[in-house]
Design goal:
Elements (H helix, E strand, L loop, with lengths): L2 E5 L2 E4 L4 E8 L6 E8 L6 E6 L6 E3 L7 E6 L4 E6 L8 E9 L14 E2 L3 E6 L1
């Protein structure tokens, strides 16, 4: 079992930055690939970024490439999403997700992730 709690959301102006955190509890975090998804009003939930359980590899959706950075600290059972140069279209609820695995392939598909947090709201104001 893995429980995930996101934090760090808020309202920022266009061009601003936010760092989201996802704190995990449970024994399997260090053997779980982690990902961030987001869901804007009226839209489907979409993949933002993922990181392998080793922390060696990451993968980004095109929307966040060059602006977002995913990282993890297995000693703190926490995964992060640093978001820079934020745009109004980044406004969404951001969710953390976990796929318990020792595999090194990262998935964009929601059904690959077994555990989800409750989400944190990010609002970018123009």
């Amino acid at each position: 079992q893995v429980q995930l709690v996101e934090s760090g959301g808020g309202m920022v102006p266009v061009g601003g930055s936010l760092k989201l955190s996802c704190a995990a509890s449970g024994p399997t975090f260090s053997n779980a690939n982690m990902a961030w998804f987001r869901q804007a009003p009226g839209k489907e939930r979409e993949f933002v970024a993922g990181i392998t359980w080793t922390g060696d590899s990451s993968y980004y959706a095109k929307s966040g490439q060059g602006r977002f950075t995913i990282s993890r600290d297995n000693a703190r059972n926490t995964v992060y999403l640093q978001m820079n140069s934020l745009k109004p279209e980044d406004t969404a609820v951001y969710y953390c997700a976990a796929e318990p695995t020792t595999g090194l392939r990262l998935w964009r598909s929601m059904e690959k992730y077994q555990y989800w947090g409750q989400g944190t709201q990010v609002t970018v104001s123009s």
